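Sample entry (327 residues):
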Amino acid sequence: MSLVKENLSFQKRLTIITVLLFAAKIVAWAFTHSVAILTDALEYTINVIAGFISLYSLYLSAQPKDENHPYGHGKVEFVSAAIEGILMVVSCALIVYEAINNFIHPHSFHQLDYGIYLVGATAVVNFIVGYYAIKKGEKNNTLSLIATGKHMQSDTYGTIGIIIGLIVLYFTGFAWVDSLISVVFAGIIFISGYKILRSSIAGIMDEADEELLAEVVKYIEEHRRNNWMDIHNLRIIKYGSILHLDCHVTIPWYFNINEGHDEVKALEDMIRENFGEQVEMFVHTDGCLPLSCSICVKQDCNVRQRPFTERIKWTVANVWSNRKHTI
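Predicted structure, serialized as tokens:
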């Protein structure tokens, strides 16, 4: 099974689970008439909607490249995550409105014990499923799964707060506790939604992933070959689960086409060995110049014009820069 099909299959199961959990929350509200449980259920509609959106986005991302989308359809996952983040932020306003209305016009509660049991069960399932969604998303580099998983776990934290509040309400009868829980819950959702929205916009705008870039540069530095004088103009762009990487590599000027191809292939194989087959690379070869001699560690060069002086350590700063390395 390909990576995209694996993600799609996982998201289908995830969507079914979210629908079942939503139904359980509605039943809990019907038992209790608690506005905190109602807002929890209303907020969870976002999970259901986002689940179907994510399912469709993964279906699109699984489509092969075409003339209109030469880099594939993977970026639709960022759009899916952005929609989920927006829905989460909007839901906060609805939850706060319901909380204020309930504080002004309090109502009676029923069967809080049953509601606590049902909501508690949904919290446990939600956290476990969210954990596996995040792990699957991180493993397959799929933002939509990571966003869904984080959303589910943020729901869990809010639900735990709701359960604590319902227990207090059960023993004290203080109706205002129900509204207070809802407001706190809204704050948790807002923070999580903002983070998801920020991450998705960064992907849409091709913002540099500094952590990933540093990891790639560190790996190349540790496995560099003597025929590579430097690597510069390194760029990394995410297209869903696909990483697009391009760079320039400086090699001996006298290498023929086949020798240059071998060096490029060695670099590509090395990157894919560590970062997976979902890496798409475009490598441009540059011939070395006399200024490269002072940093060149190649010992069997018969045309060296300057003595070796210093081996330059490759860092994000000099690999990202669009110029050959020199001292």
